Amino acid sequence: MEQRQSDDPNEARTPQSTGPKSGDRPANTPPSANAKPSADQRETPQRSANQRDANQRNQNQRENRQQNGRTGGQRDENPKNNRNERDAGPPDRGPRDAGAQERVSREEGQNPRNNSRPNDRDRANGNRDRNASEPRESVNQESHQPENTGRTDRDGGSQDRTPRDGSAVGREDRLVIGISLGDYNGIGPEVILKALQYNRLQKICTPVIYGSMRVLNRYRNLLNLKDWNLNGAPTIGQISHKMTNVITCWPDQNQDIQPGQVTADAGQAALACLQRAVDDLKDGKLDALVTAPINKYNIQSEEFKFPGHTEYLAQEFGVQDNLMFLVSERLRVGVVTGHVPLGRVRQNVTRERIAQKLTLMMQSLKQDFGIEKPKIAVLGLNPHAGEEGLLGNEEQEVIKPLIAEWRNKGQLVFGPYPADGFFGTRGYTKFDAVLAMYHDQGLIPFKAIAFEDGVNFTAGMPVVRTSPDHGTAYDIAGKNLADETSMLQAIYTAVDVARQRKEFADLEENALKKQPVEK
């Protein structure tokens, strides 16, 4: 994935404050001095004593809340602003919570057409105080526990995502998700730690970070993520299902991090992490792999001569063709030519190649996202989709005839659409996915629309692989500015796709089991 280097150190979004409603008087605000007390309000000795007792109880409650805030997130003294583990879900955030409702329906056994997903920060709100106050699991190796500084939480609590049937996930049924560290001088370690802090994803999966305990502890100290332990596991067979696990992939006793710097050591460490994770993925010990960003330059070596993760994984798993598929709750975009220089795009936009990508996209929407009858929009190659041949003939000679062929087979494939007008008028909202002809034609609008929660998913692979849709972002590395939402979403997508594939395989197997007809 190409990195969007942020020019704006704002990438860490600040959750909106939920203060008292307009017109409400704060709990501790006295009434106007000019207001006359009613008969019920006139003070009596008994009323004064009762009021003092009530005031004392309120003061004790405020002190308890403040004490909880020091261990599990700062608490607002106004009860209206507090949300704890007994609250019935995330606050109402308007139209985007429609996705949350759809996910609840899907988890209860329904199968809506679109795979909408609620906002990750909404999901994160909730069980902070309980999670912080409970005893934490001790780390296996004492040297892995950095000093505790009493850091308060930054954005949310333990994630409560249950399986689609609504039941709790048994430990033996919990998916094991591998996460490769990427370039440790970029924002990869930061977004991984922020996404997994307080073991808040433990209810839906067992995370295994392929990286370095020493490097991760350095970032925990740097980012004040210290009041939470990691489990050092020598191998995948020794992980804990109660904690976030770390498998150290290279000897790093004398290695130090240099946030924001491009170094050869970081590139080779990223490759070591990826190779170890892929080995376990091949052995069936991982259910999915999430890859943190690498630097495509410093990772190059005799063992890695690829433009990115996708091409490396395709070779490792013997896949001839795959689809770069960018997905979010609002939009899914695939590309025909992927990591191809712009000067060679035209020669790669062939009828056969477009048909291959359409086939992969159609299959992925059914198998990986549970959409029974996908509806796909195909973009044109030229400005204004060729303007009926005035600006290019590819639409008339290649794309339109192919679309007509698919339509004749009963497939819901439409186009070709001019990219600018299609995205400008939000035409994508009427389709399950969009097939763009080349990298920037698809990724520029996707990142403009869904950069925070976008995920790069590799369709057409025998294994599940996702990654956040950003790069190493050296300009903000180590500054506690990186937003982990895309990494969270990449983990959620990996879990969802892995489950959906199993369900799809079960359905296919059951459909093939025919009862013999008695003669």
Strand and helix layout:
Layout: H1 45-72, H2 97-107, H3 120-124, H4 128-133, E1 175-180, H5 188-196, E2 205-211, H6 213-223, E3 231-232, E4 245-248, H7 264-282, E5 288-291, H8 309-316, E6 323-327, E7 332-335, H9 345-348, H10 351-367, E8 375-379, H11 394-408, E9 412-417, H12 419-424, E10 433-436, H13 439-450, E11 455-459, E12 465-468, H14 485-512
Parallel strand pairs: 1-2, 1-5, 2-4, 3-4, 5-12, 7-10, 8-9, 8-10
Antiparallel strand pairs: 6-7, 6-11, 11-12
General description of the model:
It is a single chain. The chain has helices spanning 45-72, 97-107, 120-124, 128-133, 188-196, 213-223, 264-282, 309-316, 345-348, 351-367, 394-408, 419-424, 439-450, 485-512, and strands spanning 175-180, 205-211, 231-232, 245-248, 288-291, 323-327, 332-335, 375-379, 412-417, 433-436, 455-459, 465-468. With 519 residues, the protein is α/β, with parallel strands linked by helices. It has two domains: 118-319 and 461-483, no CATH class; 321-460, Isopropylmalate Dehydrogenase. The protein has a twelve-stranded mixed beta sheet, with helices on both faces. The model is unreliable at 1-45 and 69-169 (pLDDT under 50).
